[in-house]
């Protein structure tokens, strides 16, 4: 076996460097050379919602650092912005314990992974370390089926194909590869194509303009396409949904990273799509991290067989996972067979009560959502919000009719740690009326801190298990049960 190694790329001219911290990396392990390398730390923004200004958010400077590695990684961070009183590495499930000496923080990652180093208890004082596994078979130049972009800004022959300075339309059978240290300032567009990919550890950096609908101002846009792979790439500073897709089939989004700081800055949004896999993603967004919708714009049809797993989600505004809002009242649509598992939610921070819930199934526009399984969800903090929100509803701002219903949802091993939370409002399960109801919602091993919530838990006879969440269930929701395995 070859010894562990670390690969970094020099920062291209013109890409802003963070003044918050400095990072050095070293391969860990008995066969690794004890050689530290400096890694560029890039400046980016996160955002919190303004309650007084319509068109803008409050921006917060954060930092990003990338590398490729085989084996374990030793990380040494010198924090320059302020005195370090405390440091924590999230997600907590990674079980990474930092050591602090003055303003230097060190820790070890057992393998390539994405983590956040949070300083002095504030998510706004954060280094995001994005570590990719070394790909020994990665392309190094263009070929018949590959458009290659190397280190630097727009360093690839295919840049000459970019339309209007911002859109690269990818044809069927083509892979776009972004190498470590590659920054591209255009959007990747997949329209009515098949067997395509964009992959590699490079960065799609803030494409500006070149769209008809503001929500499509992101890094990747798909429509009517099949057999598409998005793997390993990072998008920073986009102006709409970071990745949007409608009427697509057999799409796999693996290891996608997104950082947004604008109004409607969603992470990954799918509309009217089926056979979708979203996995190993890290999303820090200024709106929903992941959203599953029905009809909107020119997209129509049911959605089914959608898997979301092994993701880290930090929604600085709105939900980590949102389902159901948009649809087609004229020809109602159904979303079915959604499985969500092994998710770390780092925070919810949403003032508006309409849009609270780390996980929300808010069904409107005659949508029906059925057969949804949500398991192994770890929520580390709620700055302001709810654990979950299930509603059949009509929202006059975004919808034109109520939904048809929500049926057969299983929550298994959903846990919340309240230690770092601030305002946790009661969760809600609300049917709309006697015909537009919510039925058969099962909670198994629901855990709030160290307490399991179930029908047979220790409590007085007049209390309900839901009171310990806390959770309010209205008269139009039936079959809500709580069990301990």
UniProtKB/TrEMBL annotation:
Indicate yes or no for the key word Signal. yes
> Which InterPro entries does its entry note?
Glyco_hydro_28 (IPR000743), Pectin_lyas_fold (IPR012334), Pectin_lyase_fold/virulence (IPR011050)
Which one Pfam family would you cite for this protein? Glyco_hydro_28
| Coiled-coil ranges (or none) | none
Give the top-rank taxon of the lineage listed in the UniProt record for this protein: Eukaryota
Keywords linked to the UniProt accession: Carbohydrate metabolism, Cell wall biogenesis/degradation, Glycoprotein, Glycosidase, Hydrolase, Polysaccharide degradation, Repeat, Secreted, Signal
Entry annotated with the keyword Secreted: yes
Localization in the cell = Secreted
Question: So what does this one do?
Answer: Pectinolytic enzyme involved in the degradation of xylogalacturonan (xga), a galacturonan backbone heavily substituted with xylose, and which is one important component of the hairy regions of pectin. Activity requires a galacturonic acid backbone substituted with xylose.
Family to which the UniProt record says this protein belongs: Belongs to the glycosyl hydrolase 28 family.
Report what the protein is called: Uncharacterized protein
Which organism does this sequence originate in? Bionectria ochroleuca (Gliocladium roseum)
């Amino acid at each position: 076996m070859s010894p562990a190694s670390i690969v970094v790329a020099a920062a291209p001219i013109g890409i802003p460097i963070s003044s918050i911290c400095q990072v050095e990396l070293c391969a860990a392990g008995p066969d690794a050379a004890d050689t530290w390398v400096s890694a560029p730390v890039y400046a980016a923004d996160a955002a919190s919602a303004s309650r007084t200004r319509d068109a803008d958010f409050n921006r917060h400077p954060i930092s990003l650092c990338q590398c490729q590695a085989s084996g374990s990684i030793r990380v040494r961070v010198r924090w320059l912005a302020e005195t370090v009183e405390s440091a924590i590495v999230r997600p907590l499930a990674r079980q990474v314990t930092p050591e602090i000496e003055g303003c230097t923080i060190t820790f070890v990652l057992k393998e390539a992974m994405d983590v956040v180093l949070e300083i002095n208890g504030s998510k706004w004082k954060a280094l995001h370390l994005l570590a990719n596994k070394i790909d020994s078979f990665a392309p190094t130049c263009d070929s018949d089926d590959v458009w290659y972009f190397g280190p630097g800004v727009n360093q690839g022959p295919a840049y000459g194909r970019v339309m209007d300075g911002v859109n690269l339309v990818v044809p069927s059978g083509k892979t776009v590869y972004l190498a470590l240290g590659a920054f591209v300032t255009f959007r990747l567009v997949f329209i009515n194509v098949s067997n395509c990919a964009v992959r590699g550890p490079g960065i799609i950096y803030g494409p500006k303009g070149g769209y008809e609908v503001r929500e499509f101002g992101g890094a990747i846009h798909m429509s009517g396409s099949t057999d598409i792979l998005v793997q390993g790439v990072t998008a920073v500073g986009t102006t709409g949904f970071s990745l949007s897709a409608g009427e697509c089939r057999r799409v796999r989004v693996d290891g996608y990273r997104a950082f947004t700081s604008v109004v409607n800055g969603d992470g990954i949004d799918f509309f009217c799509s089926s056979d979708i896999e979203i996995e190993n993603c890290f999303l820090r967004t200024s709106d929903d991290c992941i959203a599953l919708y029905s009809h909107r714009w020119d997209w129509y049809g049911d959605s089914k067989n959608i898997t979301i797993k092994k993701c880290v989600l930090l929604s600085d505004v709105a939900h980590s996972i949102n389902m159901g809002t948009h649809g087609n009242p004229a020809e109602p649509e159904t979303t079915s067979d959604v499985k969500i598992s092994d998710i770390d939610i780092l925070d919810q921070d949403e003032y508006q009560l309409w849009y609270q819930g780390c996980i929300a199934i808010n069904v409107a526009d005659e949508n029906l959502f059925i057969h949804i399984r949500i398991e192994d969800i770890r929520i580390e903090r709620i700055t302001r919000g709810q654990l979950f929100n299930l509603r059949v509803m009509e929202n006059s701002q975004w919808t034109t009719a109520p939904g048809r219903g929500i049926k057969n949802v299983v929550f298994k091993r959903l846990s919340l740690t309240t230690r770092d939370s601030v305002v946790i409002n009661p969760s809600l399960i609300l049917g709309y009326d006697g015909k537009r109801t919510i039925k058969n919602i099962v909670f198994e091993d629901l855990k709030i801190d160290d307490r399991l919530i179930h029908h047979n838990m220790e409590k007085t006879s007049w209390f309900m298990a839901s009171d310990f969440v806390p959770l309010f269930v209205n008269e139009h929701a039936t079959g809500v049960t709580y069990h301990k395995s």
